[in-house]
Write a structure and sequence with these properties.
574 residues; mainly alpha; two-stranded antiparallel sheet; 4 strands
């Protein structure tokens, strides 16, 4: 423990130092938010709502539309993750900008980002197209960050012997990605993909229905169905909608996630085979199918061979970006100066907007940040208390995982905002009932990030290390201290970072509650953002959003990133 604290303190100076990348990132996000708010002023003044049918017969079509939006957002998320995380992991200069930027992006609350995206797009594109694109972008923002953090964490903790082997065989970037990086990260990516889909379901209602002033954007889908059913207090329709969601999640579990889990068993860093590997009836069905075998041998295999030959010639053997001739340097400087000029103009315009915010509202913002920070901390501690033992039990006991995994996915995917009014009615009569309700909703929106990452970390523990722990009779706390917690540490850090970001996001719906024609609001930055959005108070919306972002950045830079450095230096699986 003393050695751990000494190493933790030794990184303090480096972790606390801000770089030019931090400043550029903050200026860039200020500029983007200002541009979005400015475009929102030019949006159509009135947008008519589309009718949402509550007939059960409409559910299959609505479900298909929602799954389509989720799939499009997930594809974008995975492409972003693979490119962004790789650059941040392998290029130190790029990391100085990309990781602070990732902190900013994952801390931007989805429900605060929604008016910027939706109203901004509606000023440039037709109403229907703008709403569809905004919905996909907003679902993307609820899916991508934990995937990117997981990919980055995996790349920075690849065992040294695997890197040395890739260097001995002189693998280029493509073959390192295919044979070392992606297989090593496969388990973490699959579990975080399930978490991303659960997060997408959580915010689906917000992404398909959005109202500000007289502008009512509504897309037909499962989220809009649940929202309309809740507004009409139609218990039967709510039950039909949740039933459709549960069926969809179970089908995805059986046909997509469970086969992927069985497939990723081959990528565990093991010296011996697991006693009870993951199994999937659908994976076995596809694996033994003649059609799938024919497709693999005649279509997929030749295509991959051709791609390997092409990438072997086209991709360089190293990842170092080299500067070109003098003309290239002048071009780089010109682009840099143009970018800095655009940032300076955007920051200047944002400052002009922020100075219109009264001092009293700035005081409310400061108090709100502190109150929400306290709720986030409480929710994170409560989540840690139960997710660590449960996640380890599921991750180390495949038989238990076969039973509980679908239950966890279904529970994580049910939008808490659809059933939250029930908890409010129960708790509102208690002392501090609204604060308890806010912490509860934050917990419901954040605990799954921790649980899925802990399960992934527990599943990735090599079987030979488990056998060794048995041979030397490690039991109880000694086993946890020596084997389980060190192996979980990188995954735990990733889960805590994304869970805390999710808690800040959830504060917007947790601290400002509307149901039954009545609005209840707790003191907090989330309530201020929700109120500013509903009133169309764009200066206050910009001030509150930037304050939340700044708070999350400071916490990430001064605390979470130290733990990331510790995971990279001390807790590699090697």
């Amino acid at each position: 423990m003393d050695r751990l604290m000494r190493l933790f303190n030794s990184e303090r100076k480096q972790a606390q130092a801000f770089t030019w990348g931090d400043l550029i990132v903050v200026f860039a996000i200020v500029t983007v938010l200002y541009m979005g708010v400015r475009l929102a002023w030019d949006a159509p003044p009135v947008v008519r709502a589309k009718e949402i049918s509550l007939a059960p017969a409409a559910l299959p079509w609505y479900t298909a539309l929602s799954v389509g939006r989720m799939t499009a957002a997930y594809i974008l998320s995975m492409l972003f993750t693979l490119i962004y995380g790789r650059l941040a992991a392998y290029h130190r200069r790029a990391e100085q900008v990309l990781m602070p930027l990732l902190d900013v992006l994952q801390s931007v609350p989805i429900l605060s980002f929604l008016p910027v995206v939706l109203l901004g797009l509606s000023a440039l594109l037709p109403e229907g197209l703008a709403a569809e694109l905004a919905s996909i972008v907003l679902i993307f923002t609820s899916q991508v960050w934990n995937l990117t953090f997981a990919w980055y964490q995996s790349l920075t903790t690849i065992p040294k012997e695997l890197r040395e082997a890739s260097a001995v065989f002189r693998l280029n970037a493509w073959f390192r990605f295919k044979t070392m990086e992606l297989p090593f990260a496969a388990i973490s990516l699959v579990w975080n993909s399930m978490m991303s889909w659960a997060g997408g379901w959580f915010f689906l209602m917000a992404a398909e229905i959005f109202t500000v002033g007289q502008r009512d954007f509504r897309l037909p889908g499962l989220g809009a169905y649940l929202h309309e059913a809740a507004n009409q207090e139609n218990v039967t329709a709510i039950a039909w909608g949740i039933g459709a969601l549960v069926v969809t999640v179970v089908l995805l579990d059986q046909l997509v996630w469970r086969p992927l889990m069985a497939w990723t068993e081959r990528f565990k860093v093991d010296m011996v085979e697991s006693d009870t590997p993951s199994a999937s009836w659908f994976f076995n069905l596809l694996h033994n199918s003649r059609i799938s075998r024919w497709f693999s041998e005649t279509v997929f295999g030749p295509l991959m061979d051709r791609l390997d030959r092409h990438m072997g010639r086209a991709v360089p053997s190293d990842l170092v970006f080299r500067n070109g001739a003098a003309g290239r340097k002048w071009l780089d400087r010109t682009v840099l100066l143009a970018g800095l000029g655009a940032l300076a103009y955007g920051v200047f315009q944002a400052v002009l907007l922020l100075i219109t915010v009264p001092i009293g509202e700035w005081m409310q913002v400061a108090v709100g940040v502190g109150a929400t920070l306290l709720r986030v901390a409480v929710a994170l501690l409560l989540a840690l208390a139960w997710t660590i033992p449960v996640g380890v039990a599921i991750g180390t006991t495949p038989r238990l995982a076969n039973v509980l995994q679908p239950v966890v996915q279904v529970t994580a995917s049910i939008p808490a905002t659809a059933v939250f009014p029930v908890f409010v009615l129960i708790l509102i009569g208690l002392p501090g009932g609204l604060n308890l309700a806010a912490v509860l909703l934050m917990l419901m929106g954040t605990q799954w990030y921790l649980l899925f990452n802990i399960i992934a970390g527990a599943r990735a523990i090599p079987q030979d290390l488990k056998y060794t722990a048995r041979l030397i009779h490690l039991k109880g706390w000694e086993r946890w201290r020596t084997l389980i917690l060190p192996a979980l540490f990188p995954y735990l850090v990733t889960g805590m970072i994304t869970a805390s970001g999710g808690a800040w996001n959830a504060s917007i719906v947790a601290e400002h509650i509307t149901f039954g024609g009545q609005t209840l609001a707790a003191v907090g930055i989330g309530a201020l953002i929700a109120r500013a959005t509903a009133e169309g108070n764009y200066p206050l919306l910009l001030a509150a959003t930037l304050s939340m972002i700044l708070a999350v950045i400071l916490i990430n830079r001064f605390f979470w990133h130290r733990l990331y450095q510790l995971a990279e230096e001390r807790f590699r699986m090697e």
